[in-house]
Structure formats: structure tokens, C-alpha cells
Amino acid sequence: MTLNKEKLVVIGNGMAGISTVEQILKLTTRFEITVFGSEPHPNYNRILLSYVLEGSKTFDDIVLNGWDWYKENNITLHTGTTVSHIDQAAHEIVTENGERVPYDKVIIATGSNPFILPIPGTDKQGVIGFRDISDCQQMLEAAKSYKKAAVIGGGLLGLEAAKGLVHLGMDVTVVHLMDDLMERQLDHQAASMLKAELERQGIKFAMGAKTVELFGDERVAGLRFADNTVLEAEFVVMAVGIKPNVAVAQASGIWTKRGIVVDDYMQTSMPDVYAVGECNEHRGVCYGLVAPLFEQGMVLAKHLCGVDTLPYEGSVVSTKLKISGVDVFSTGEFIEGPEHVVIATKDEWKQTYKKILLKQNVMVGAVLFGDITESANLQKLIKQKTVMTDEIYDSLMGTGCCGGGAKGAASVEAMADEEIVCGCNGVTKKTIVDAITEQGLTTVDEIKACTGATRSCGGCKPVVEQILQHVLGDGFKTSVKQGICGCTTLGRDEIVAEIRAKGLTSTKEIMHVLDWNQPEGCSKCRPALNYYLGMIYPDTFQDEKESRFVNERMSANIQKDGTFTVVPRMYGGVTTPEDLKKIADVSLKYDVKVVKVTGGQRLDLIGVKKEDVPKVWEELGMPSGYAYAKSLRTVKTCVGAQFCRFGTQDSMGMGAFLERKFERLDLPAKFKMAVNGCPRNCAEACTKDIGIVGNDGGWELFVGGNGGIKARLADSLCKVKTDEEMIELCAAIIQYYRETGKYLERTSEWVERIGLETIRKAVVDDIESRKALVERIEFALAQVKDPWTKMLNDTDTRTALFQNLEPAAQ
């Protein structure tokens, strides 16, 4: 009964407080929990705000615990409510509106506030910090009306804010007092590489600049520096640091220094009151990163629940940054001194850098740039004060012969149970191991759904996979092996190999020879087999329309009211007045309900009656836009060098060329491309299957982006100097995806499954492999035809599909 439960009040609805509550709920039901949050939102992941700003995630995507979670766990949540102080004598907390709530225990988890420089002009309109979702929303609104922005602060948060604003189309300058970016996390070499990469992406920098004033009338108009030079800016983001939010503690008479002073069990100077996360100060240190707050929360949760726990003794902090293809990591000590032994390697071609610092042969710190696959392993080794050995050196520096699997198994075996694997969501190794052993989980997706690990940035996925392999042992591969559907135990690669080895030429033959347990297959495997056959035999295979999804059979998208959408091609998003007039005339004639401009820069004719679809095709006289197909949908472009003052390459011309070249070819899933004429990225290359960015020296290719349900930023694959090489590489990438991708697998999933380095080796580094891929795609492209024209010339098929009743959609 709740009458017998202890009353636990949590002041703060952020990541620190709620992660502590999550740990408490796992250990006991003894508490009646009340949470107060100043924001009008449920608990969300602040470290993903930059993804919301750049548009790859929505606010709903970063919510950690939705409204239902509080109800399901009988937690009373007060949002939009600020606590003013704690009344120790009455054992009550008091809100700013005068409400009083009794407590037995209190956790203060008020986090931190952005530090605002004490200079004139910070109170002007258009000056904000970057700390919560409301700041994000203000940036999104500002980008609609203003063009010039300044971000004061070249730390982690400032760079993420700057990249987001550039993505929104603003002209952004990062103003930094120091000569190196992220000087608290990076050495000079890594900072220089980071600055050069971000400049290439469109961010400007004013380094060594001390801001002394923000000038303007009611709204900010610019910054004045100590040397009396100025920088115009209509919008200013302060990202110079954070300060612990100690207001409640100070108003309550609790001991504070920079933060709320706590002991090794998070106890404050007031009995029964604890503080966790960025608001506290432990052993003289205030932490501003996420991993320490989870470590503190686990100690506090066990202490409150009466469970034996080691005291919190501080954290070895690490920083990981990923924005639009930039990967940076640091942990521990990173600036070398005379007491250090330095192990370092730099690859200017791959744009990678790795440095490990030793002190008396003990690993004490590391910096990674460009390739951070070793980040989790390095963080563990440094946290455990590991002595460097020849074996560890070979493993870390790539000179040994040991396989990655053995190294990974040894690494996770040595991890402590309470070590955090997923820093974004505070998931420990033990939580994952228990989920595997107690609930029979066998895949990363199952662990994600159960524990939250890999749910946010995905950086911990390799470690989760290693834990799976370590716990399941020899059963790991067999336990996760799945067929392409319930009709077979065979996977994609096995089926393709059998088709080639046995010369199988039809879906029915495959099902018969390979012992399908459903002789007719199902709606999942038939389209997949049809695709694999067409990919293997592009010149001889007769496409099986009955194995296609209904939209592909009809060559148009069916809508929920039974009408269809017709989408003609507009190469590179460019059309002519003549074609626009034709579209308007046809739309009026056939009573098209809606003509919509799409995100792919073309026009959808929505609401065409079924019997009118072929007539619309014929009178338009334009090729199919393939909006219904598993193939190239669009190549989005900016205006580029033809018109834009920033453009360095002809993005419209290149986009139209690529769309004409690769249209109509069957692919594992829908496929989108974009071509930018400069690094400002107006065509949104970072969320496309292939994104192409022009610069003064040529082009840069990105792969594996996705702006849909499973949003993912594309990875930088390579840079090239000529149009010819760029086109050749696009052809090789697409063909390699055709030959190795699973049916319905987007490139965002494909890249993660087979690895960026595998793709780079096959299409960039191995010239012979690239040439062979290009030859095969050219052969396949020679076989394709426009489906609208083909169907208009096939009276029987046209009549069967558009004059008779259509079978139920698959």
C-alpha cells in the first residue's frame, strides 16, 4: 500500500534524475515517487538535441521515457513546475507556486544552465544559449528569417550548434577564445584536423577572438572583439560552457561551492537530501558529460535501496563527437608532457589520427580522429589503468595478427558488471547480460527494445554484439541465423549462391529445388526472389509481375481511396515551362485532386482514377518517375555553380545526368541521391543513399544516409577530383549494393551490416573490382525500358490491370 511507502521526491526531470529512478525501480518498490520538472515535457535525451536541430531526428525520437512510462510505474509527474526550496524542518519541498509536498528522501537533479558571458548586449533579442529543446526550436525559427549567425564557443556543444545552423542554411561563424577547437578534449593535431573538416562543410571560424560586446538596437546586429574588429550576426548562440544549477540548494541552506557538494554516496549537507548529475560537485569536480551522471545514479540508487555498493570515486571522462561524417573521440589525458610516452599515427589520405599516452607504461589517455572504432575498448583500458604490452599495442595499432573477434571477446570478458556500455541511456554490461540469459535475447534489436542500449546514437552497438557473442559462445551465430522469411531457413547470400550454382531461373524453381516449406512462397519471399533473379540474369530473366508488390505491378502508387498517384520524371529536380503546362492541362482534364511538390523536387499528381492512369501517362508523354519502385527515385539538386554565388560545381547538370543514367534499374530498396554544388548542403546530401558534395577541388561522396523512420547521417566514402571518376564510383557503389544488399534493405542498414571499409575497399581502393562492377551495371542498364511506354504498347496487360478488378494488394 502506498501509505507504507517512503516518499521519494526527485527535483529535476532530466537524464540524471530519471536514470536514477530507473535503477531504483529495478531494485525495489518501497518508494512512492514524485518528480518535478521545469520543462513541459517528459524525460528526453539532451545529448541528441543537435540531431533535432539538423533535422535527422524529431523531438519524439529523443524522448527517453514517454508520458505512459510515468503512469505505468505509478510516478506522479509535475511538468512546467519549478521547486523553489526544501523546508527541512517540515520535511517538505516547496514549489514556486506555493505547493508543498512531503518527503522522506529527496534527489536534487537540476542539471546545469548555460554560462552567459558577462558582457554588454547579452539581453538583446536573438541571443540564446543551447541547452534544451526550446533553444532548438528558437534556432529553427531564427533560420527561417535570418541569415548570419555566430556561435560563441568552439567546444562540443558549440560545434554541434554551428553544424545544425549551417544545415538550416545560415551563414555561421564559430567564435572561439582559444587557438584550438575543443581544447579541453583534443590535442592540437586533432583540433586542426577537425577545424579543416568543418570548414570544408561550410562553418567559418574566428579563432583567438575575445568577444567584449554584442551590439545592435533591440535585436543583436553583431559582435565586437577585444581588438575592436566586428562580426555581423543577426543571431547569436552562447555555448561557452555550463554552470551547475544550484538555486534550490542555495535557497535551502545546503552547502554549495561551484556545485552542490556531495560525498561518495551523493549525500548533501542536508540529511535525507541527495544530489546527482551536473548540479553536484564530487571531490572538487563538476562533471558536464553523460557517463558520470549514470555512474553516480547507480551508486545512489543502490544506497537508497539498502543494497551494498562501492562508493563513487570519480569518473574517467570521454568525449565523442559525430557531425556529418566527422568522428572524434578523446578520453583521459590527451596533451602530452615530458612525463608521457606517446604512441601516435596519422594517415592524411584516410584523414585519420590516433594517439595514446602512457605514463610509466600505464595507459592514461587517448585521442582518435576519423576512425573511432576503438573508442569503447580504449576507454575501458584507460579506466582500468592497463599496462601497455606488445599484444595490446599490436591490437590497437593494427600491427598484430589477432582477429577482432578474439580481441572483442577478451575485452567484454574483462568488463565489470556495472560498467556502462550505452552512455546515452546508462545501460550496464550486467543489464545486457541478464537480458540475454534470463529472457533469451539473441539479437541487438531485441536488446535495444528491452534495455535501450543502442537506442540513441548507436555507438555502443559493436560492444553489445561482442557481449552477445561472449555470452552465447558457439551458439551466437546459429541463434541469430534467420531465413529471408518463414518459408525457408536460407539467408540472402545462400539463396543467391544456390541460384548461381544450380542455374535456377524462376521463383517456382528456386522454391522447389531449395525445399521451401510453403510451395507457393509468401508475399515476403516472392518479391525478393524475383529481384535476385533479375539482378543475376539482367538480360534473360522474364520479370514475374505476380511476384511484384501492387504499386510495382501498376507502375503507380495506389492511395487509400483506390485512386492512384502518377509521378513523372523531373531530372535533377529541373523542368520546363512546356512540361509544367502539360502537367497542368492533364491535371485539369482528368480531375486530379492534388498536385504536390515533393521533398524530392518533383510533382505528384494525386487522385487519378484507375481507368485514367494510362491516359494520363500517354498525354503527359513524360517518363515514369519510379515513385512506386525499388529503384532510383530522385536526384535532388541545388542550383549550384550555374546560379548560386557559393556554388563551385554544376550540381543541376550532374544531378540530371546521374538520374538519366541510373533510372529504371531494380535495386534492393528505394534509392535516393543528392548533388550539392558546395558544402552548404542545400540538397541535403547527408540523408541520401548517395550524397555528393561539390568543392573547389572536385567532389566528395557520402553513402548510407536516410531521412526516414530509421534516420541516419551518411558516411564520407571518398573525395575525387574529376566528374568522370565520381560517376564511375557512383556506378560501382550502386552495383555493389545491388549484388550484396538484402531485398528491402536500405543502404543505411547495408552500410552498417557490411561495413564502410568493406565498401571502400571494393569500390574505391580496388580499381579492378571497381571496373568489373561498372561493367556489370552498364550491362544491366542496357536492358531497362520505361515501364509506362512498355505498358501503353501492351494492350492486354493494360486492359487486365486498369479495366478489370485488381487482386488484393500484397
TrEMBL record:
Chain residues that bind [4Fe-4S] cluster: 638, 644, 678, 682
Residues covered by the Nitrite/sulphite reductase 4Fe-4S domain: 629-766
Cofactor section: siroheme; [4Fe-4S] cluster; FAD; [2Fe-2S] cluster
Cofactor note (record): Binds 1 siroheme per subunit. Binds 1 [4Fe-4S] cluster per subunit.
Molecular function GO labels: 2 iron, 2 sulfur cluster binding; 4 iron, 4 sulfur cluster binding; flavin adenine dinucleotide binding; heme binding; metal ion binding; NADP binding; nitrite reductase activity
Family designation: Belongs to the nitrite and sulfite reductase 4Fe-4S domain family.
Official protein name in the record: Nitrite reductase
Pathways per UniProt: Nitrogen metabolism; nitrate reduction (assimilation)
One Pfam family hit: NIR_SIR_ferr
